Amino acid sequence: ISLTPEGITQRMSSLVAQSIEVIRSRIDELGTTEPTIQRQGDTRVMVQVPGFGDSTRLKNIISQTARLTFHMVYPGLTAAQAEAQGLPAGTMVVPSQDGGSELLYEDVALGGESLVDAQPSYDSQRGIPVVSFKFDTRGAVTFSEITSANVGQRFAIVLDNTVITAPVIQQPITGGSGQISGSFTTASANDLAVLLRAGALPASLNVIEERTVDASLGADSIQAGLTAGIVASVLVVSFMVIAYGVWGIFANVSLVLNVILIFAALSTLGSTLTLPGIAGIVLTIGMAVDANVLIYERMREEQRAGRTPLQAINAGFERAWGTIVDSHLTQLVAAVVLYFMGSGPVQGFAVTLGLGILTSLFTSYTVTSYQVNLWYKRVRPKELKIQHFRFIPDGTKIPFMKISRYVIALSIIMSVVSIGAAYFKGFNLGIDFVGGTAIEVQHTGGPADAGQVRELLDGLGLGEIQVQGFGTPEDLLVRVQAQEGGQAADQVAVQKVQDALAGDNYSVRRTEAVSGTVSGELAWTGTIAVIIALGCILLYIWFRFEWQFALAAVTTTSHDIIMTIGLFSITGLEFNLSSIAAVLTLVGLSLNETVVVSDRIRENLLKYRKMPLPELIDLSINQTIVRTSLTQFTVLLALVPLVLFGGEALRSFTIAMTFGSLVGMYSSVIVNGPILINFGLKQKTDDDSVAKKEKPADGASV
Fold first, then answer.
1. What is the C-alpha separation between 84 and 98, in angstroms, rounded?
2. How do residues 56-95 score in pLDDT, each as one tens digit?
3. CB 591 within 8 Å of CB 331
4. Which of 622, 518, 615, 573 minimizes the C-alpha distance to 39?
5. Using CA atoms, how far apart are residues 350 and 271, in angstroms rounded to an integer?
6. Could you report the per-residue pLDDT of 618-642, keeping only the tens digit for each?
7. Which domains occur in the chain, in start order?
């Protein structure tokens, strides 16, 4: 019996696919490096790891098979004696790490597939690094049986056909855990633990080529993004000063320190900053601005209620702090779940988001507070003149609930249309998902210009095109997404690229089919991570508020995700890796907006117990709408320069972010309230001393 050529091809394809997932797991264990891993041709895999300087270590981690097995050592006979006399039946000679060899039974007593964890540790008695491991339930039982039946015998731990250690079993080991000791350094023990946790490769891999590459966005796109970022920063900082005067300067100082702390933490952790990571920073900057706006608007409200400037400052920080903590902790819950459940770009987003949440809490409570208190001690003002600019005047009383049934109907229609478009029309998936063709080109007249090549190719109508430096300054790697029409259409696309570059001294050196960088497993784990994160957020808000608030928050967030997904499907906007970053960011923005409004509704439920619920929700929305409009405007100020100057590489990200932020504002202001009523939120009717009988003060506040 022999495999057909088709069977061999299918088997090889399966091995390569499994190898890609193992490689991804191994590199993910090294930290938030967010690798690019693509299949090239039938038997090759291309791995790009940004910011990883030790290429030798990386090659070892990628290429080592890491097949771990446990064997009993044959007693009473050395390997040399066995080779001289003839090997006993069922035995084999295996080289050992110390340069010798061991005579082992061929039968595998226990396999590495039974491992559930492996961690680098330190044997304090012998003063050496070791690797501690733990078996699953079945492996623990087998390990206990083997060690119980072979006390006094030697037990060999074999990694990739090399004996790492062969200790004598001193006593039965029933706990399901053990140690691997050998000639390890701290680094090699850590790397072995990484390999064991990620699992063995299904086949051996050989490194055939190593090159240094530029950023996948290209130097020109990075420069465009940097320019847009500088313009956005200037706009946001300037607007805060225009809106709040000296108070805006306080907020800007906190914001700058917040960003510095984020980058310092990323540098300390050795994390690589990629586009999803930048998206996480964008979200935390928005939340940091929002925290200061919350504090300032609370101060204005307290002053209008008749408090002195000092009392207004203290009460403003105290009352806004609860809202800030709730909005930030919901994001932190999401970040933790995304980090542990997701992988690759999802983890990168989670790390920067989590760090940004912590730094934002720190700067808003300590840095802003310190500046305000220092200013008050020096100036001793008789009145807090906080705001100089407003989009919405004080005393706004928009009857949102009167149009609630129309709003809900509109949202349902838009959601159905979005889901229908996604199901029947699908998405314009970019090269990150569908793969395509990798084309290596070389410039014969000096260093290659990635920006020039991108301009030459953008007008060919071939979909997404990625251009990056590849090896020498003269070489570029061009990725063209898969074309409709299969292999023949891909060949036509390659010819178009070759023709477009021929007149500018570029020659095509090699072409090869590549897979998408976002595998099915990666997309699935990312989706599951988002769903679990929303579930955890539901539980947190349920605990802090009431169940109606929790369901409403998850519903409005899901509504915003559906709307944004619908945008991609209906417009044909390319859905790529940057789109994932945008959707994750929008989840955070939507939650932040909804929690702030819900917190004010909860507060007013206790304060105005006899007010009809629709009126109370209207009051709460109008009280928070100034803060909502200011926060959304600062987010848009940051996004518009990215849309205008960020270049084609950031187009999907910026358009989705701009659309999603507007949808998030719509849902938190208009959709959230009717959902709360439909979910059965009730007004408090019990007689309580906390209830306020006075008429609510006019004016927009937080």
1. 21
2. 777 777 777 888 888 999 988 888 888 888 888 999 999 9
3. yes
4. 518
5. 12
6. 998 888 888 788 878 887 887 777 7
7. 5-63 (3.30.70.3400), 68-198 (3.30.1360.200), 219-388+399-424+521-678 (no CATH), 436-514 (3.30.70.3400)
